[in-house]
Amino acid sequence: MNRPKLVNNIRKMDDMLMTMIILIQEQLEITKSALMNQDKELAYQVKKMDKRIDDLEMEIERECIDAIALQQPLACDLRRIESTLKMITDLERLGDNNVNIARIVLAQKERLTIKPLIELQKLFELVALMLRQWTDSYVRASVELAVLTARIDDEVDLIYETFYRGMLEILVDHPEQRDQIVAYLFVGRYLERMGDHITNLSERVVYTVSGERVSF
Question: Rg of the Cα trace of the chain?
Fold first, then answer.
């Protein structure tokens, strides 16, 4: 094993992973603004950012595979590389869900006239909080922070259920607005899935740091 080469591989992986994380954090904020303001220009920006996120996923994957195939890493290094491969999959799916919401904005021929329920705003805030806190857990290699992050997903699930029921009640009273209501329901579902992906990321931090496989 060429230790200096492996250290360089891991450093490059970490740098690219942080770039990917920062991009997704920015993309999430733009996605929120695009939806709340019905801004198609911002929605297009979300889609453009996804190309760079996808490219980073492939670059990191190549770096990981090279490290495994050519450097014969020790068990602790292998665990870190394995976790990175898993993380980029969940991170890329976060980007995909941002794009899915952006596409809903772009698909609307007219502005959404139904005022989004406050639960939708709260879902965006919680997902953003989970992503920030997970990033801290990753940077600090903190199992405690990772566990706390995963627990927030329980609140995401509860708020999503409240949001879902609320939208169905509106549908009963305003069936003529079915298309807009369905659009919001999809947005809520995509945000709920994002919470699940960040929970997966938290599990990977625990595994990387402690070697323990957990399921939150």
Answer: 19
Cβ atoms of 205 and 135 closer than 8 Å: no
Residues 6+ apart with CB under 8 A from 135: 21, 25
The answer for residues whose C-beta is within 8 angstroms of residue 1's C-beta and 6 or more apart is 71, 72, 73, 74
Q: Structure tokens of 80?
A: 């870190």
Least Cα distance to 90 among 209, 216, 195 occurs for 195
**What number does CATH give the domain 3-210?**
1.20.58.220
DSSP letter string, 104-118: HHHH-SS---SPPPH
Candidates 130, 107, 110, 134; CA nearest to 47 is 107
Residue of 95, 83, 78 whose CA lies nearest to 20: 95
Give the DSSP letter of residue 87: H
> Greater confidence, 25 or 119?
25
Torsion of CA 93, 96, 98, 101, to 10 degrees: -130
Supply the pTM of this predicted model. 0.93
Q: If 0-12 CB within 10 Å is exposed, 13-18 middle and 19+ buried, where does residue 30 land?
A: middle
Q: What count of Cα atoms within 13 Å lies in the side-chain half-sphere of residue 60? A: 28
Residue 29: both structure tokens together: 């904020």
Residues 30-69: tens digit of each pLDDT = 999 999 999 999 999 999 999 999 999 999 999 999 888 8
Written as one letter, the residue type at 212 is E
